[in-house]
Request: fold
Amino acid sequence: MSRATLSLYELDRPALQQLSADLKRVLADDDRAAFATLLELGPDLAKRLDEVERLVDCFLLPDSDVRVAPLHASLRRISKKRALTKMMESSDAALEGRLRGFEPLRKDASTARLLDQLMNPQRLPWYLRRSGSTCGWIDGNGRTALTQAMRRMKSALPPELVELLDGLEQLDADAVLHDGL
Amino acid sequence: MGWLDKVKVRLGIVDAEDVEEEDEPRAELRVNPTNREDRPPLDDVRAAPKESIEDALAAREAGNLTEMRRLLREMDRGQGLRLVLRAAAALEAKDERELGELMPRLHKEEQLWRLLLQIAAALDEEDGRAAALRARAAKLGAPAWALAWCEAMAANPETRRRGMVALLFQDAALARTVAARDWALTGAEIDAAATKRYTGFVHGRDSIRRFGATLVAELVERIA
Reply:
């Protein structure tokens, strides 16, 4: 089985916050028509919403549950469409290991903290976390600081970290790292 | 109680009683200098109670209210659920003298919001009392996740749904655990990340329910 590779996204934070607010409202109101519109569901999937007692039930089940997996996938797809732009996909599955264990980079405590934040799923909304996935978020200031720290030691970085640095340098906002979107 | 446990109690993640009960076996594994017989006893240090709330509730369920009150007096550490149940038992027995002794301590209860939410969750009713208890807990600074959780366990279906949505956005692991345990939603799974917090809160709710939530609600109405 091949390991998932990490991808770097530019995050439009206000757009994601708006999506969260929209989603929270339709779930709280149990408004199935608005929910289907929000997630751009096809007629077949929208019809299946009639089978659940409450819309929120769909997201209380694991995303691996076949009954609700398409809805979780739709929500992630809409999240990407509205708020996330892929800037880089790592060509090497070893990137995560490097981020967790490349000592020269982790020697600086503030850089190590930023790297940990970039791989902390709890920093993302619940609907962007997938069980077993590696993901996280840093804001624009954190992204700038991390980019500068990596640039200073670019000559010593292994290729997979150089590839990430190139991706970070293209960003102009918050950064999201994810291996399951 | 270590600093981490104190923080957990202050944040409402666990009950003080639970931490105390957990501390006892760990402490026995260590060399304890206070056990030395050649030293004078320490002032103001009380041994952890041997009785548990479960013993008191069992006595109550067996109809032995005198024994229940004795056990509650024995285990009372001056705060938390044990104090509250002891006071509720005094109220039930119309023992105004004991109640008068306990009320000043109840007024100082640090996490009254937690108790109010546990009573609201234990009431299992659609009347305004549970909602009033939740509103009072909110005024006392109850955290959003605790309020959402309590609403998710309300009797009114719309309150339950809205509470669960709020909880999902506050703490998805806890929402899924509540869905599995309290809603018995088929296919929902308990999330290990939320188990300790869940257990700590539910222990209080279930104890109050077994004791009689109406009586405990009557008690907290006396606490200004």
User: Anything to note?
Assistant: The two ends of chain B are 29 Å apart (CA to CA).
